[in-house]
Design goal:
By secondary structure, this protein is of the alpha/beta class. Helices cover about 35% and strands about 25% of the residues. The structure holds flavin-adenine dinucleotide (FAD).
């Protein structure tokens, strides 16, 4: 059920009676994590008239949600773990700067996650994840469109579609089973070649023999600016931010307690953990062991003048994309399964930028800003959205490559769970206890 947009814009003092915080009784709802997932949950709960405080050690959308590739990838329903991907692994792993790397020293720690990932690629599990992801994506699109309107951020939406590019007939043919699967879920696309490719993106090198245009793919002007604009709307509804690192959490039937790095404590009736790639560390406090890994991704954002990119360009064979933002041209992607502690290896962003220059010979690669982010990823490519083992705590993390895309839907689902309402999709595939 959508919130009425007029009601959503009323000042909080008109909307509700004094909150527990205003009455000196602690927080009503605390959210750990001010990334796009945490702030969408905060926004939907604030719209429902609840009093919300977001705790983050760095700020609103300052970490992984700040520098991603900006796609609302509503048509991207294929789980990552699949037989085709597993077949590609040896080739990819052989190239230390290729689409997928695993630092050798990290392999022993990663092994249990990799085994689960491999199992998730079995046809039975793959088909189940695909159907779940397709249902989630329908909700994701509906919820984002509603939230963009209510928060006044729709002008930040770009509806230009995407163009996926293939360098050989063999690469194109290998993609066809994935497109057939998407078609079963009603996703529109058109295979293109020759002049049609050139019309969709002038200036591409002639090496691309085929392409696929996906009209329903969308991007945003800049993911960090979108996150901050949605947060500004939440603040108008009464949501608050506290700049603090959470060290520890406790929960019982009366509510949750958050222990901050300075030793002070906050209490809340309900707690939402949306701490991205660090969420499992907090879940562990509550006795939940969740196999969350960080798929580290890299990019370089060039000045807007670097090239006239018409829509997001996807080079799946090389594991990266080029996105035209209002704030620059962003080149990057790749996956480095290297955990949350190791320093970034920006040779990876440089390698993708060099390839981008080969693919778009007119691209000016100078003046870029390099970045790395941590995709919070579970082995079956689905997030955790649901109740913790402890009472009064909910999880919202593990969206991997799709956190921006699925943020408003996750906010909606968390709102329903916190308010005790029936969610619009089955949440069993997303529960924390599935591992
Ligand atoms: C290169 C790259 C490209 C991507 N492209 C896309 C894309 O095009 N489309 C898409 O949908 N997704 C994309 N993603 C994925 C997307 O960025 C993530 O899934 C999403 O940002 C995760 O959001 P989050 O809120 O869960 O985590 P984060 O944005 O990481 O937020 C978590 C927050 O929790 C805070 N935190 C953690 N621990 C604590 C603590 N103990 N105390 C206080 N605060 C804490 C952190 O400071 C952080 O701000 C991409 C990711 C990468 C790396």
């Amino acid at each position: 059920m959508q919130q009425n947009s007029e009601e959503g814009r009323r000042p909080s003092s008109v909307l509700r009676a004094p909150s527990p915080r205003e009455r000196g009784e602690g927080e009503d709802i605390a959210i750990i994590g001010g990334g796009i997932i945490g702030i969408c949950a905060a926004t939907l709960l604030s719209e429902a008239g609840r009093s919300v405080t977001v705790f983050d050690r760095s700020g609103i959308c300052e970490e992984t949600s700040s520098g991603n590739a900006a796609a609302f990838a509503f048509t991207d329903v294929l789980p990552l773990a699949h037989k085709g991907m597993v077949k590609q692994l040896p080739k990819w792993l052989a190239d230390p700067l290729g689409p997928l790397t695993i630092p050798p020293a990290y392999l022993p720690k990663l092994l249990p996650w990799l085994i689960r990932f491999w199992r998730a690629g079995a046809p039975k599990h793959y088909q189940a994840s695909l159907a779940t992801q397709a249902g989630m994506m329908r909700l994701a699109e509906a919820e984002w469109m509603g939230l963009l309107d209510r928060s006044g951020t729709r002008p930040m939406l770009h509806e230009d579609g995407s163009l996926e590019l293939y360098e050989s007939e063999a690469e194109f043919r290998a993609s066809l089973s994935g497109w057939a699967a998407r078609k079963r879920f009603g996703i529109g696309f058109r295979h293109v070649e020759g002049e049609e490719i050139a019309a969709l993106q002038p200036g591409l090198a002639p090496r691309f023999v085929k392409g696929t245009f996906v009209p329903g793919w969308k991007t945003v002007a800049d993911p960090k600016l979108l996150g901050k604009a949605v947060w500004a709307y939440a603040e108008k509804l009464g949501a608050r931010f506290e700049h603090a690192r959470v060290e520890r959490i406790e929960a019982d039937a009366r509510g949750a307690t958050i222990v901050l790095a300075d030793g002070t404590r906050r209490t809340a009736k309900k707690l939402v953990i949306a701490a991205g790639a660090w969420s499992h560390l907090l879940a562990r406090n509550l006795g939940d062991r969740i196999p969350l890994e960080a798929e580290r991704g890299y990019n370089t954002t060039l000045p807007v003048s670097a090239f006239d990119v018409k829509r997001q360009l996807i080079f799946s064979g090389h594991g990266f994309v080029i996105t035209p933002l209002e704030t620059g041209v962003r080149v990057g992607g790749a996956v480095e399964l290297g955990g949350i502690d190791r320093p970034p290896n920006f040779a990876r962003s440089k390698a993708m930028l060099e390839k981008a220059k080969r693919f778009l010979p007119g691209l000016d690669p100078s003046g870029g800003r390099e970045w790395m982010g941590y995709r919070p990823s579970l082995p079956d490519s689905l997030p955790v959205i649901g109740a913790a083992r402890a009472p009064n705590v909910f999880y919202a993390f593990g969206h991997g490559h799709l956190g921006l895309t699925q943020a408003a839907a996750t906010g909606r689902l968390i709102r329903d769970l916190v308010l005790g309402q029936t969610p619009p999709i089955d949440l069993i595939p997303f529960r924390a206890q599935r591992f």
